[in-house]
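Entry 14. Structure prediction run on the chain below.
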Amino acid sequence: MNKILIALALFSMPVAAAPWLITPSFAAATATELGDLSALRTIASDTLDLVAKGDMTAASARITDFETAWDSDASRLRALSSDKWGVIDDASDAAIASVRTNGPVASDATAAVAALIAALDNPSMTAMPVGPATAVTDANARPLPCEDLLTDVRATTAAAVVSSADQPKLDELTNKGIERCNADDDKRADDFFAQALALMGK
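Output returned:
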């Protein structure tokens, strides 16, 4: 019953109390110096979707599409703004490595690709540290209570600025996590919640 109430509380929140639901994407900011990066962002978003589905082979192929497109335009973009190009280039290197590594870890890849998308949206920011993914097990390798991670998701969501492009993915991951949490499947619920947190840069 408590889990059902948690779910209802999360999704009955009025829009006025959750302005991140209508926060516009930062994509427009990239047009000032680096031009239109929407095509690159689409590839990165496709990669994130494939990682979320567990199709790492397709994700690897899609991130290679990103690498090819990014490298082919590197000289022009770097000339426009070496600082902003550098922020995105660092994030792209991390994302490519996390997806194409042998035995990729979905939560790590999610964090790295989400950081790449954030850099594309706002290359003026300091490069986001990818760091270790959100812990989903205790010291004895047992799954953490999914209710604890849901609390983290709710708190982070309330404080985060989520782009309109990322909001559907965040909602999907949170919904799936709540579904598995209500089914007492802590392991899978924790993974969904960790991906949701990674999407918000945590």
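Confidence is low (pLDDT under 50) at residues 1-31, 126-132.
Filed with the rest of this week's runs.
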